[in-house]
Structure formats: structure tokens, C-alpha cells
Amino acid sequence: MLEKILQKVSKPARYTGGEYGSIQKDPKSVAIRYAFCFPDVYEVGMSHLGLRILYHLINEREDTYCERVYTPWPDMYEEMKKENIPLFALESGDPIKNFDILGFTLQYEMCYTNVLRTLDMAGIPRKSADRDESDPLVCAGGPCTYNPEPIADFFDFFLIGEGEEQTNEYLDVYKTCKEKGLSRAETIKEISKIEGVYVPAYYQAEFEGDKQMSFTPLYDDVPKTVKKRIIKDMDSVYFPDKIIVPFMEIVHDRVSLEMFRGCIRGCRFCQAGYIYRPIRERSPERLLELAKKLIDKSGYDEISLVSLSTSDYRKLQEFIDELLKYTEKRMINIALPSLRVDNFSLDLMSKIQKVRKSSLTFAPEAGSQRMRDVINKGLTEEDILGGARLAFSGGYKSVKLYFMIGLPYETDEDVAGIPLLAKKVVETYFEEPREGGKNVNVTCSVASFVPKPFTPFQWSRQNSLEELSEKQHILVSTIKSRKVNINYHESKISVLEGVFARGDRRLCSVLERAVDLGCVFDGWSEFFDNEKWLQAFSDCGYTTEMFTRERSYDECLPWEFIDIGVTKEHLKRENEKAKIAEVTPNCRQKCAGCGAASWKVGVCYE
Amino acid sequence: MNKYFVKYGKDHRAQYISHLDFLRTIGRAMRRAQLPLEYSQGFNPHPLITFAAPISVGIKSECEMFCVRLTEDITAEEFKERLTDAMPDCLPILEVTKDEIEFKSINSADYEIETEKPVSDELINAFMAEPQILIDKKTKKGIKETDIKADIFDISVQDNIISATLKTSDSGSLKPMLLISAMNKYGIDTGFCRYLRLRFRDTDKNVI
After folding, report:
1. With an 8 Å Cβ cutoff, is A93 touching chain B?
2. Contact between residue A232 and residue A599 where contact means Cβ atoms under 8 Å apart
3. Which chain B residue's Cα is nearest to A296?
4. d(CA A465, CA A200)
5. What is the ipTM of this complex?
6. Domain B3-101 is found in CATH 3.30.70.580
7. Can you give the pTM of this predicted structure?
8. In chain B, which end has fewer C-beta atoms inside a 10 angstrom radius, N or C?
């Protein structure tokens, strides 16, 4: 039956498995069958490094068979529905309804409808409360679980923080419970004793008007706060030395090597910069060992060095020099995303790139200096223009700049600063007599800011669609130049993202309603349907403004029961400094006393 | 000459791998196997690899072939051993030889088509007795009604297995799916079909 429909759908290789490096086990030989679910299409899900790490980590266990599940593309969904085929795992093709555990990774809020679609297609009740002994346990981890409340009803438990150690801990507990024949509820209870595990059913949230008034444990033995998990030693933690090599092209089709976790910068809009604190590096020796193995075992001809800000790796030059010795004779390309644009980076890039890319990308994030200080970007106009000069002298003709609008404390002048900065970048090209000025081009890609939990801007009001559209008008009307292109994103999706990022349990009903109305793949503009979403809100008696509004410092924030190490006091301090455009030095310049030192690792103890 | 001819298969999972995807896959497998590919000279070097009669998506095979040049000279046996370890199971390496295979001499391919509903001899005979078999065929210039009768070199049926030898050459090929579409159009109900390519033949019908 499956073969029949695969002939009808687009890109059938999404559903067949069998890739080099994928794991085959005898299902009868294992105690636990685990479905690792990425709620997006194969090409996106396969590109995710976290899934690749945990897939192999779990499969190292002889007692567990971990298989992959991605969300079938809408054409496949239709065919499967027509033929009554339940959602299956890629490796064995078996229906996941009969598995022991479904583990979701939640990377962005706009995948939430796909979570419900996955459960629907599997034939598993959406709500934790409706599941019985015949259903698998359904859990989730990933950055979105730093505010799990908008999806609280759908998961039996959440895994907050970094998963490499915790995953094995709860699989051990699960196995013991299964051997003892414990019930679903008893098993969840046992798993909840592991640090970093959050069981939403053990807590009660109360609301009044727009606000969440309280959040309390229902039982005496349930902790008031859940501490995130953190990996203390990046050298000894598991990292796979092999990867799955897909047949079809995926979004990040190369080896990804994680250099370090965390970031020293403290940009005030950036959630990753706070939740992964403190910064912890892998040693160059360990990185080199992994790089060699991954290149040899995958056959990829490109390796990407990933982190939140690769320029901040202390021994970058030294490491790249060593890596080049290995990659050059094998014709392997090195990709360095997230570099800061300075002399050092450009030198490095000219060294590693055999084929010069035509365009150079960097991210000033804001157009005016005042605004860059508000968000603590730590980048001056001279840094940016200096970077552009270097790029143009190096032969680049095209520069791409990333910005945001809708940031807190932003004025119209700040917004106009974006095209004005782009114009100044163009002008640097003509400071010196150069040929080919006709083809010089600066492209500004402008996103709408979404306030996120655990950042200094977590209390800020998110701009409305009207405000964003006025600001977009400023962007395109400030200057007229054929050498400056301004692109901006669909702000309706950003508003919805903001709603779910800072929302509470009441959104579970909205999400269910939206799925019933047909919402799915919301991160894909061709499927995103704002009208249906607005209907879902109104059907449930809520508005988006209830969740995008400004919060006061004394309000009970839905995600505050999670302890990330960074204190609320620090976030408040940073928000106050943002109001007066005062910059905070980075972690290596001066400790800001954020609270992450309580983990007793990383930069805090360098 | 460091020129190798590789025969490989495609199982049911691999049948959806497109030609471009296969090219990428084989490039990576050769790297994993540490079989150093020879690249063309010039501005945009590409590996020296050629394929015999590329296969459509949705067909399993026991006879796919490509030819590749290495910068090193190793035995065909060693080549086979190393590449086999580096390939996914669904793309088995069947044979490696240094003996020249003339891809240009391929003139037809044998297919086995498993039909959901059994087809009788009589129906096949009647189908082949048609003066011409017209079907819409996608060409470079668009969709064109074409007579495919001459491209069906041989056809027989046993229960629900149709065996057919179809034209497969540089100057044009008949895909087995198109044959089935034509049979359906001429009133033979096959239901859902599975396709398997078995072997190539030259103009004298000798197996290549």
C-alpha cells in the first residue's frame, strides 16, 4: 500500500529511509522502541544537529531502537489518510502508535501544529490526559521547552535543557518501570524525579483577565522550580563520530561540528545567548579528532563549524590551521557561519575558501548606533563600515546585512537608520577608485523582532502588525538607490510566533482549534493561513494581543518556574540598561554577575 | 587504465532515488571508500563518471551500470570490496570489472512488471495485434502522441508477471510505465504495478 502511494507523492525519498549510516536493529531484540520526532519535513529535520546527536546516542544503547519520524508533506498526508496508513518510523516502517516513547524536538514555535498532526496521524490521543496504557509516552525537548506552557496539555513530560545525559537517565528509568510492569502514571512519576524533567499535569495555573496569576504544584512532593540540565564537560560528552548521509538534498547538506555551547555576547534579544549560558568550549584536540572521523565516515566534501559566534572560539586560528592540513588535500571545504566581520575573520575566510563566494553576509541587527547599544550588539558603525571596506578590497561586490525591526525602545529614526547604513556601506566601495562599481549591491534582510522568554526583553510589548507595516514603509521609502535592496519577512507569522513564545496554557485550546481548522506547516509561507488562526483565537475567546502585550516585572510569567541559572534580577538590570542604551561588556571582558556561574563551569571559571 | 565498470542494484527503498541524488550518493561513497576519483581538467572540474541508460524513479533494478576513472590503480576485486562497505544496503554493488563495456551498444532492456491484477495471454496478444499503439509521450518539445509499438521488442505474461523487452538506447527509450499506461488505455486493467529492470541487451539481443 505504501509503495502505491509513494509513486504519487512528491519526493518519495523522504519516506523510505535506508540512508547510509541509518541504524537497523531487530525490533524483537530491544526493550524500548523510541520514535524521535522532528515536527517538520525530512529535509529540514535531517539538517538538525541535535537530532543527529541524540539519534546515535540512543542507538548506542543495545536495549533501545531509536527511529526517525518527520512530518509527511501535505500531499503525503492526503494519500496516507485516504489509504488509512498510520504514521510510521523511517527505519522499520512500523506504526509509531505501538512504540514505547515518542520524543519530539521543538526548535521553533511554528512547528506546534505539526506536533498535533504527527499525533493525529499516529492515532495517539492529542492530550496527555486522554492517553491510556496502550499509548506511548510522549515527551519533548529543545529550545521551545523553555516555555512549555502553550503546549503543556499535549505532552506527558518535558526535558528541559541539554539532553545528552538526561536522555540515558530517563531511558534507564523507563526500562526499569517497564520490567516491573508499572502503569503509565507510575512510570511518569518515576521519570519526574530526574532533574530537568517537567510534568505539566503536576501543576496548576490560574488566570485572571489577560494574566496568569499563579502557578503552583498540585502535590507536596513536586518541586516549585525545574532546573535546566547542562553538560559540564564538552570534551567527554557524547558526540557521534558518524552521521546519516541522506540521498536527497537537505537544507544543511554537510558535516556539522559543534565547537562550543553558549555565547559570551549577551545580545539582549537573543534567547540562545541566555539559555545556553555559560559558554563551554570543546578542546581543539577533540574537535580535530571528531572532524577527521566525521569527514572520513560520511564522505561529505564540506564541514561546517557551528556555534553561536564562531569568532569567539579562543583557539580558532590554531584549530583552523590544523584542520586545513587535513581538509586541503582531500578537497574538503570548510564553512564558517556566524563569524563577526573583522580583519581576522576575512583573512581566515580567504584562507579557507577555495572558491570565493560572491556575497558576504553579516548581521548588524539594528541600523542606528543607539539601537545597537540598546540591544547590546557591541558593534560600532566603524566596525561595520570597516568590515565592508575589507570585503570590497577583498573582491566582494555584494554584501548582505541582517536586521530586525520592532525592537523595544525603537524610534522611527532607528528604523530609518537601516537603509541609511546600507547606503553608507555602498559608499565605502567608492572611497577608492575601483572598477565594476555598477555591480555593487547591498541587500538588507529585515526580520520582525519576537520577544522571547529568558531574555531582558521578555517583558516587552511586541509590535502590532500595523506598527510593523509602518516601519516596513519607512524602510523602503527612506532612500532610493538601485544598489540597496530591502527585503522584509511576513510579519503575521512573527506575531503568532510571539504569541506562542510567551504564551500560557490557555493557548492549548487555540492550537487544537487551529489544527482542526486545517493549520499545519505554519513555518512555510505557502501553508500559513492567518485567517484560520484568527478564527481559532476568536472561537476560543482569546486575542493575540493578550499574549503580545507588555508584562510588568511583578507579573507571574508562565515560564518562570524554570531555572536557567541566569537570574531574573540580571534580566531586569539588562532591560533597564537597554532603556538608556547602556552596553554590558561580554563575559570575557567583565563578568556581569548573571547567575550562570552557579553551574560552576565554562567561561565563569576560565 | 584505471577505468572501472560497476554494476549495481536498486532495491525497493532505493527505487525513489533520482539520478542526481544517486550522483551525489556515489560521490560520497567513493570518498568513504577512499577510492580517489579522477576529475576532468578545466575550469569546473567534475568527476569522470558515466552512466548506462539512466533509470526512471520508481523502478527497481538488478543491472544498473556506471563507469568511473580513478587516479590510482587497484584490482577490480579490491574496488568492489571497498565500495561495497561504503554503500547503503539498498544500493548493492553486484560486480566490478576493468573489462570494457560498451554502453553505447545498449539497445534494449528486459523488465519484469508485477501487476496487481492478473493479465491473460489473449489480452496481450490482442494488444500486440493492434496496427499501432498510440500514447501521449512527453518529449522535449512537449506532449506528443506517439506510436510505441515498434519499441516493444518482446512481451509475454505469466499470471501477474509481465516480461517485456523495451527499447533502451541513446536514440530513445520506452519506459515500462508508459507501456502500462498504453495497456490501460487499450482496455487492459493491470491495477497497481511494480517495476524491475533485469538486464540490458545489444542490437543482437545479447545480454550486456
Report:
1. no
2. yes
3. B32
4. 32
5. 0.90
6. yes
7. 0.94
8. N
